[in-house]
Amino acid sequence: MRIAIASDHAAIELKSELAEWLMELGHEVADLGPYSTDSVDYPDYGYKLAGVVAEGTAEYGIALCGSGIGISISVNRHPHVRCALVSEPLSAALAREHNNANCIALGARLVGIEMAKACVETFLETEFAGGRHQRRVDKLSNPPSDTDTIEPLQ
User: Fold this and answer.
1) In the chain, which ranges are E strands?
2) Dihedral (CA of 93, 95, 96, 98) sign
3) Which of 132, 57, 78, 83 is closest to 92 using CA atoms?
4) What pTM was computed for the model?
5) CA–CA dist 80, 82 (Å, integer)
6) Nearest residue to 99 (alpha-carbon basis) of 85, 78, 88
7) Active site residues
8) I want to staple 4 with a disulfide (CB 3.0 to 4.6 A). Which of 30, 36, 44, 55 is the partner?
9) Tens-place pLDDT, residues 91-148
10) At residue 47, what are phi and psi to the nearest 5 degrees?
C-alpha cells in the first residue's frame, strides 16, 4: 500500500518509528514531514496529508501530533478525507468498517509505539462494510443543503 504520514514536532519520534515499521512490512511510505523537532504548526502538515490522500497519491494517511486532536481536525477540513482519531484497535476497525476512513490520527503523547502499531495494523487490515454505511459516508463529502429537510433514518 501507499501510505502518507505527517506529524507536528511533538510526534516526530512516533512518525519515524511508524514509517520505518511500515516500510519493513513492505508498504511504500511518503513522509510528509516535518523532519526535526523545531516547532511547527500542525495544520500545515494536516492539510498537506489531506491533499495527498484526496488526490490519490496515497491510499491512506497517518496523522500525528501530541494529542492527535489538532491534526485530525485539520485533515478533516478536506471534504474528501475522513480522518478518525483513535487510541485503540476497536476504534480503528470501526473507523474503516463503518466510516470508510482513509486517514487515522494518533496522539504521540497518549499512545505508545506498540499501541500505535496495533491501531495502524487494524486500520489497514479492516475493509469498509459498505451497505447502509455508504449512504452516510456519501453525506460526509456532500452534506445536504437544507438541514431542515433531513429525513429520519429507517
Assistant:
1) 2-7, 28-31, 60-65, 83-85, 103-107
2) positive
3) 83
4) 0.91
5) 7
6) 85
7) 65, 98
8) 30
9) 999 999 999 999 999 999 999 999 999 999 999 999 987 888 888 888 887 766 766 5
10) -65, -40
107 lies in some domain: yes
Tell me if 142 is assigned to some domain: no
Is 153 among the domain residues?
A: no
Q: Which three cell numbers stand for residue 64?
A: 500525528
C-alpha cell at 101: 476512513
Q: Which amino acid is at 5?
A: I
Number of domains composing the chain: 1
Residue in 78, 30, 28, 24 with CA at minimum distance from that of residue 50: 78
Amino acid at 16: S
CA pair distance 31, 3, nearest whole angstrom: 9
What are 56's three cell numbers? 490519490
Residue 73 lies in a domain: yes
Contact yes or no for 30/4 (Cβ under 8 A): yes
Residue 60 CB: number of other CB atoms within 10 A? Answer: 19
Percent of the chain residues past pLDDT 70, beyond the cut: 92
Residue that is written with C-alpha cell 429520519 in the block: 152
Report which residue type is found at 148: D
Spatial contact of 58 and 30, defined as CB atoms under 8 Å apart:
yes
How many of the other CB atoms lie within 10 Å of CB of 85? 23
